[in-house]
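Lecture 7 notes: from sequence to structure.

We start with a single chain of 137 residues. Read the sequence below before looking at the structure.
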Amino acid sequence: MLDIQSLLSSELEIQFFISTHSPLVLASAETYFNVITDRLFHITPNKDTGEAELSAIDFVKYGHVNSWLTSPIFNLGQARSQEAEKTIDKAKKLQLQESPSVEDIACTHQMLLKELAETDPFWPRWLFFAEKHGVKI
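Now the structure, written as tokens:
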């Protein structure tokens, strides 16, 4: 879009309003963001009125897309879906138990299969734990 702007006319001052839920778009904007002319806004619902509130926030370079996901912009605890994060938190609590039941481990394993990618870095830790407690994977 920035390249198209320069092709249209050097005399036009084009203003873009871009809305995204994509951390990749924000990571890509780091190279072009100008603190003098550009602004970053966060839209949040007001819990009392239900109306959307627009707040200007400082643009910070977070670098890696995963860092954007865990930044105040996206506010995720981990760089994965909220469902996957909740399931991993449940699995971690189970791992802290002194004598977790085979049934709980098997049930949690099914939830992890549903939520996590095959390459998720949590798998080695989980598989070791499950097998150590007698759950056949």
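The chain has a mean pLDDT of 90. Keep this in mind for problem set 3.
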